[in-house]
Design goal:
140 residues; mainly alpha; single chain
């Protein structure tokens, strides 16, 4: 049994006539001199209050505190959660989320993808090239 429980039990067992009186109604002193006397006089500590203890303090077990602060591995639960939902988001939504999470600086931006142009067939035919050779180089 703790000391605070004992004190509360003893307070309940006190006779009803000895109830605590509010400090303003204890004695009929009045005036500034009475206040000085009251300040100088040390009060005897009341049996119900102990200033050395913290009110409502609970003794904590070191083992319980260690278990509370011990890191917990959530890998298995997270993997089950991830594998459970096979919902795949739209490509546009994922791009939007990635764009919001990127920084604004140019170094944070991904390089722009340029579309490669496939070379189309030439406008000139083989006969046009032969004709050009004959005219330019004079080859028969």
């Amino acid at each position: 049994m703790s000391a605070s429980l004992l004190r509360r039990g003893l307070e309940l067992l006190e006779p009803p006539g000895r109830a605590k009186v509010p400090p303003g109604l204890q004695r009929g002193r009045a005036g500034p001199r009475a206040a000085d006397v009251a300040r100088r006089r040390k009060r005897a500590p009341e049996p119900g209050t102990n200033k050395a203890t913290v009110k409502g303090r609970v003794v904590k077990s070191a083992i319980e505190e260690y278990h509370k602060k011990k890191p917990v591995n959530h890998l298995r639960e997270n993997l089950q959660y991830m594998l459970k939902g096979l919902l795949v988001a739209d490509k546009a939504v994922t791009e939007q989320v990635l764009a919001q999470n990127r920084g604004r600086k140019s170094k944070d931006q991904p390089p722009e993808k340029t579309e490669k142009k496939n070379p189309k067939g030439t406008v000139f035919t083989e006969e046009d090239f032969r004709k050009f050779e004959r005219e330019y180089f004079g080859v028969p």
